[in-house]
From TrEMBL:
<feature type="domain" description="Tripeptidyl peptidase II second Ig-like">
    <location>
        <begin position="465"/>
        <end position="633"/>
    </location>
</feature>
<feature type="region of interest" description="Disordered">
    <location>
        <begin position="248"/>
        <end position="267"/>
    </location>
</feature>
<protein>
    <recommendedName>
        <fullName>Tripeptidyl peptidase II second Ig-like domain-containing protein</fullName>
    </recommendedName>
</protein>
<dbReference type="InterPro" id="IPR046939">
    <property type="entry name" value="TPPII_C_sf"/>
</dbReference>
<dbReference type="InterPro" id="IPR022229">
    <property type="entry name" value="TPPII_Ig-like-2"/>
</dbReference>
<dbReference type="Pfam" id="PF12580">
    <property type="entry name" value="TPPII"/>
</dbReference>
<feature type="domain" description="Tripeptidyl peptidase II second Ig-like">
    <location>
        <begin position="22"/>
        <end position="205"/>
    </location>
</feature>
Length: 898
């Protein structure tokens, strides 16, 4: 191998790797995996000082100096992290710095980890952290150069497998997939290591982060693991990938079904209102001018939406975020007034009636109403709570005496009245379950210390998630009378249940049916089979009573479950049978307590105990905290794992994994409903120079365009409403490119309908409007001209008869080549059609083959149909016949029967 360490620079270009066998023929089986991420940080604070003259002076008389660098980082979830400093780590005798130490602490100054030149991994809970790096040297110039030293925070991530190709354009074209080869002695063979695709990169990964992993080039001949993990193979080498800049994806959530009964104008008005409230919450109030602008906007929105509870709650939230300033009493009185407005905006009678009704919501609309009412209750409770705190603080500030007058009695009565109202809506727990960085105010109220006894014995974690699904279709039918009739004369019936699920990423999944799986002789059902297929009816997996895991790519899938029985009543009961789709997830460790209230109060943390013979001892397993649950986990999903109660005395793994211990038992946790978190991104710094009104207008405009993109066009009425809104927005923002592009996108998403020519003319008009709205001269100054010169054959073709329409097509195509790669998967179909129009059928077929091979998800039927048409037009009947046969395999008209 030429280079032992391979570094991908973040571009689309692959790395060329040359392999050579020196003595005998060898099998080359390369495997490359990325499994860790390193995020770079710059210091937020730098301190350089001279140390004490006594102990820190060298024999030569030079004084030692110390540089302390402070870094801050945030963990969205608990993780095992390790600081990594490429310049300094793992070097002692060949470094210029006599000592280096680091310390990781949280916001409460609690130290979680310390280390030196050889950093080690440390498990940290979710929260904000500070890393302090301490360096010593006698040369002040050397330390000055390190004031901007980059530190990486390394943590594990999901496995990303890299593609290998036999040609350098492979990562772009998708051609030449390389799997294995036999090396002959003395003959070099090259392959190309491609970068990971953008969709496989971890979400919210900052630019400049580094994904690291390993690559191996061969495997043991007797290894039954297929060499899929490079570390299992004889030799492996490090690889890394630098994360490039990434364009944030636009939120494309569909319009809620609860709004389906409202008109388009009502739904748009609601979206605009929510955007204004969100914008208000993102405004800063650091300076007097910003606070003045905030108050003006509050008054404006209150006059526009006088009794909107979320708006009034947002205003209260803004007041609470302000520092008390000079006149503390006035500040708390403002809070009381804002809280009173929130309370008055709530219909407490309606809210009470709803909360007293304990029935479960039957549909999505009822579920959304429940969430809305629960949010209103929370806002009401928060307002009463903050009002009570403000009243108590005003009393303290006024310095009440025991013999207070009438005004003091009145104030106390108001406080008691407010407190009684608050108790109607919330429980009176004092300390919540704090599993993030500790809350100092709560712990100042605690008394005593937690007892710790003996060795660590108990351990548990969950590592798998099961998501439940209900059938979208159920078909019960009587089977043929011949082979499906019992000797008693009873007829066997078959129930086919259909489930649909979606994978956002490729995953290894397994259907799990608690009622039926792993049971043969003690079940009432003589047979059960399942089949997993994609949107093209391609079958990926089949199984029976013992389901097995199957690897599925990203996409939408259908599970069909087939059950047989002679009793129709039994099968009728199974028409709503729940099926779980099981897949792996990150490890979630559970807390143990010595008292039942431990998960709520945080008291009685239990680590270990010594059991005496014949004496029982109880402990309590707490549920995982909400922040540890996998994101977007549906209500009713089940996290499963193991628990163990002891470890081997000679085991050096500390028994952290229950499966490493002598015995382990299954545990599970059912996910409760989860309140969606509000997006609280700060206002972009690019808008900081604009006024509040300009920024608000921009937010409203973007909301309207997003709303337009979410509108459905399935019926004639919906299409009419969509066109009206398009006309309205075009008159409001006539030359705004994102709006015109969204209108074009809406036209493209619509089916052609009856008059196909009119439909395509509409698309051309919309595309022309987009083109006219762009200042191409300004755009060209920032972009490279990617167009290639037309060849002579193309120029000749353009001068043929009827060239008017053809010239327009060529002009449009030439303009497109300036801005994009016209052979990419998104625009390649147009290139194929162009080559076909120019009668270059062979060239069209070549481009089409590249597009087909570049499809890494479920196959695109339109591309294959286009290929079949080209083969028939070329007169290659034998290949066309072959392709037709394969079309039946790739895109079956129906699923196979059970």
């Amino acid at each position: 191998m030429g280079d032992k360490e391979l570094i991908l620079d973040g571009s689309e270009a692959p790395i060329k790797v040359e392999a050579e066998a020196l003595l005998a023929s060898e099998k080359l089986v390369p495997v490359a995996v990325l499994n860790k991420i390193r995020v770079p940080y710059q210091p937020v604070d730098v301190q350089l000082k001279t140390l004490s003259t006594g102990r820190d002076r060298l024999l030569s008389g030079k004084q030692i100096l110390a540089l302390t660098l402070t870094y801050k980082f945030k963990l969205e979830d608990a993780a095992e992290v390790k600081p990594y400093i490429p310049l300094l780590n793992n070097r002692i005798y060949d470094t210029k710095f006599e000592s280096q130490f680091y310390m990781i602490s949280d916001a409460n100054k609690r130290v979680y980890a310390m280390g030196d030149v050889y950093p080690e991994s440390s498990k940290l809970p979710k929260g904000e952290y500070k890393l302090q790096l301490y360096l010593r040297h006698e040369n002040v110039q050397l330390l000055e150069k390190l004031k901007q030293l980059t530190v990486f925070i390394e943590r594990n991530m999901g496995e990303i497998r890299l593609n290998l190709h036999s040609e350098p354009d492979g990562p772009v074209t998708g051609n030449g997939v390389f799997k294995s080869s036999v090396l002959m002695p003395g003959v070099k063979e090259a392959f190309y290591l491609g970068p990971p695709t953008k969709d496989k990169l971890p979400k919210n990964t900052p630019q400049g982060s580094v994904l690291v992993g390993e690559i191996s080039y061969g495997k043991l001949s007797f290894d039954d693991k297929e060499g899929k993990n490079p570390k299992d193979n004889p030799v492996f080498y490090p690889i890394s990938f630098v994360v490039p800049p990434k364009k944030p994806d636009e939120d494309k959530k569909a319009v809620s079904s609860t709004n389906s009964c409202k008109s388009v104008s009502e739904r748009l008005e609601q979206e605009v209102r929510d955007t204004k409230i969100k914008f208000l919450g993102n405004l800063k109030q650091e300076t007097e001018e910003e606070r003045s602008e905030w108050k003006k906007l509050c008054a404006c929105l209150k006059s526009e939406y006088p009794s909107n509870t979320p708006l009034l709650a947002k205003i209260l939230e803004g007041l609470l975020s302000l520092s008390e300033g000079g006149d503390k009493i006035s500040h708390h009185e403002e809070i009381i007034d804002a809280a009173n407005e929130v309370v008055r905006s709530v219909d407490v009678d309606e809210l009470a009636r709803f909360l007293l009704d304990k029935s479960e919501p039957e549909d999505e609309e009822a579920e959304n109403l429940k969430k809305k009412m629960e949010m209103t209750r929370d806002q009401l409770a928060e307002a009463l709570y903050q009002k009570g705190l403000a009243m108590a603080r005003i009393e303290n500030l006024k310095g009440e005496k025991e013999d207070e007058g009438d005004e003091g009695s009145c104030q106390k009565d108001k406080f008691e009245e407010n407190f009684k109202e608050l108790t109607k809506w919330v429980l009176e727990e004092l300390i919540q379950n704090e599993n993030q960085t500790a809350n100092k105010k709560l712990y100042e109220l605690k008394l005593g210390l937690l007892e710790e006894l003996g060795e660590e014995m108990k351990n548990m974690y969950t590592a798998m998630i099961r998501v439940p699904y209900q059938p979208v279709d159920a078909q019960l039918k009587t089977l043929s009378t011949g082979r499906d009739r019992l000797l008693s004369g009873k007829q066997i019936l078959a129930l086919t249940l259909t489930y649909k699920f979606k994978l956002e990423d490729a995953a290894e999944v397994k259907p799990y049916i608690p009622l039926l799986n792993n049971r043969i002789y003690d079940t009432k059902f003589e047979s059960q089979f399942y089949m997993i297929s994609d949107a093209n009816k391609r079958v990926y997996a089949m199984g029976d009573v013992y389901p097995e895991s199957s690897k599925l790519p990203k996409g939408e899938y259908k599970v069909q479950l087939y059950l047989r029985h002679e009793n129709v009543q039994l099968l009728e009961k199974l028409k709503q049978l729940t099926v779980f789709i099981e897949r792996n997830m990150g490890e979630v460790r559970l807390n143990l307590h010595s008292e039942p209230d431990g998960p709520v109060t945080g008291n009685g943390a239990l680590k270990s105990s010594v059991l005496m013979p014949g004496v029982k001892e109880a402990f309590y397993v707490g549920p995982p905290t909400k922040d540890k649950l996998p994101k977007n986990t549906p209500q009713g999903s089940v996290l499963v794992g193991e628990i163990s109660y002891g470890k081997l005395s000679f085991d050096d793994k500390e028994g952290k994994n229950p499966k490493d211990n002598p015995a382990f038992y299954p545990i599970s946790y059912v996910v409760p409903p989860n309140k969606p978190e509000e997006d609280k991104k700060a206002v972009s710094s690019t808008n900081s120079c604009k006024s509040v009104s300009e920024r608000l207008e921009q937010e409203v405009r973007d909301t309207k365009i997003k709303f337009l993109g979410n509108l459905k066009q399935e019926t004639e009425e919906e299409r009419s409403e969509w066109k009206k809104l398009c006309a309205c927005l075009k008159s409001e923002y006539p030359s705004y490119t994102p709006l015109l592009a969204k209108i074009l996108e809406g036209l493209l998403s619509r089916s052609e309908g009856g008059d196909k020519i009119s439909h395509h003319e509409e698309i051309i008009d919309a595309a022309n409007e987009v083109v006219r709205s762009v200042d191409v001269d300004e755009l060209a100054r920032f972009l490279l001209d990617k167009s290639e010169p037309e060849d002579e054959e193309a120029e000749g073709e353009k001068e043929d008869e009827g060239s008017c329409q053809k010239d327009k097509f060529e002009e449009n195509f030439k303009e497109l080549t300036k801005w994009v790669d016209v052979k990419s998967s998104k625009f390649g179909t147009l290139t194929v059609l162009r080559e076909k129009r120019l009668s270059r059928l062979g060239s069209a077929l070549k481009v089409l083959e590249e597009l087909i091979q570049n499809e890494n998800q479920t196959a695109n039927k339109k591309l294959y149909e286009l290929k079949l048409g080209l083969l028939e037009e070329l007169g290659w009947s034998h290949l066309a016949t072959y392709e037709k046969q394969w079309m039946q395999v790739r895109f079956p008209t129906s699923l196979p029967l059970f």
